[in-house]
Amino acid sequence: MPLVSYIVITRNRCDEVSRCLKSLMEQDYPQREFILVDNGSTDDTVWKVKRLYPAVRVIVLGRNLGVPAGRNRGVETARGDICVFMDDDARFMAGDETQRVVTYFQSNDRTACVAFRIKGGKTGSEDRKTIPRADKRIVEEDCQIAYFCGAGFAMRRSVLCDLGYFWEPLIYGGEELDLSYRLKAADYQIIYAASIRVAHDEVATARPKGQWIFYQARNRCWVAARNLPWHFALSTTLLWWAWTGWVSLKHREVNFFIRGVWGALAGLPFALRERQPLRKPAIMAIRRLSGRLWY
User: Fold this and answer.
1) Which of the 8 DSSP states describes residue 132?
2) What percent of the chain has pLDDT over 90?
3) Mean pLDDT across 249-254
4) With 70 as the cut, is the pLDDT of residue 196 above it?
5) Residue range 30-34: average pLDDT?
6) Contact indicator for 223, 293 with CB cutoff of 8 Å
């Protein structure tokens, strides 16, 4: 049995992360370790977790380094062959999910990522925006996909290390899509495990006003410029700017949208220095799997 490392990052969400850790500890799998990365909490999250869950290894970063950096610190600490990542406001819906995750990896050496099926925590219904298809068609069976949702997934640690971890400059948003492009460029498989269900409560605590608008406007441009051929990079950027611009108008957060576009343009030379556009075989695979190319 391979060792499984559960990695959770949190910030000022004591109650939510407690429910998440309880769910992980209830998994019926013996070879495991628990890692919590605290991304600069200012409340008593760290103290409570250490008191209630002494088996959890807590990494205190001291300040908020962002989602990709938090995950990377967890991976660097992990000893497991398989890393299971879970949002701190998410939890498994059954006790045997980890054993099934392991089975997916053992059945195919080219499987690098197993994406879980994300359900609304309160409603139990399919969370449409987490469906890993550009056409948002609900999938009831296991299948290959071109990208995955970060609320709940598992990665082969060796592959993650070989590809250079999550891209830390993104801070928040787009890191899963960026990694997905690199996985497809290396011809790895991302499997959607429809039977492995995660309840996601999606608590907005610790998300400052305008954060989503700013990072979507900035990061989508960077991820596209870093990974996509130019015609896809341009269409993706313009379409996402149109969408985030409309959302910013709707929520009266236009200043965050403007700052995000300016940040995207200012940081574009940095993203281009690491540019490795996908080649034709990867583009064809992403197209076949209803992945994201032009948006």
Assistant:
1) S
2) 89
3) 95
4) yes
5) 97
6) no
Give the tokens for residue 138. 């609900």
Query: Domain range for residue 101?
Result: 4-200
Element (H, E) at 194: strand 189-200
Q: How confident is the model at residue 204 (pLDDT cuts 50, 70, 90)?
A: low
Q: Are residues 102 and 240 in the same domain?
A: no
- 158: its two tokens: 């060796």
Burial classification of residue 160, based on how many CB atoms lie within 10 Å of its CB (0-12 exposed, 13-18 middle, 19 or more buried): buried
The string over 53-91, giving b where at least 16 C-beta atoms fall within 10 Å of a residue's C-beta and e elsewhere, is: beebbbbebeebbbbbbbbbbbbeebebbbbbbbbbbbb
CA dihedral over 223, 164, 142, 20, signed as positive or negative:
negative
Answer whether residue 164 is part of any domain: yes
Hey, what are 32's tokens? Answer: 């495991």
Per-residue pLDDT at 295 = 67
Please enumerate in sequence order all residues whose Cβ is within 8 A of that of 270, keeping only pairs 6 or more positions apart, or say none: 169
The answer to whether residue 31 is domain-embedded is yes
Q: pLDDT-derived band of residue 200, with 50, 70 and 90 as boundaries? A: very high
Both structure tokens of 140:
């009831």
- Tell whether 50 is covered by a domain: yes
Please give the tally of structural domains in the chain. 2
In-domain check, residue 43: yes
Distances in Å between the Cα of 62 and the Cα atoms of 14, 44, 248 are: 16, 13, 31
Reduce the DSSP state of residue 258 to 3 states and report it.
Answer: helix
Check residue 171 and give left, alpha or beta (phi > 0: left; psi -120 to 50: alpha): left
- 216 and 196 share one domain: no
- pLDDT at position 33 over 70: yes
Is the pTM higher than 0.85? yes
The answer to whether residues 71 and 43 touch, using CB atoms and an 8 Å cutoff, is no
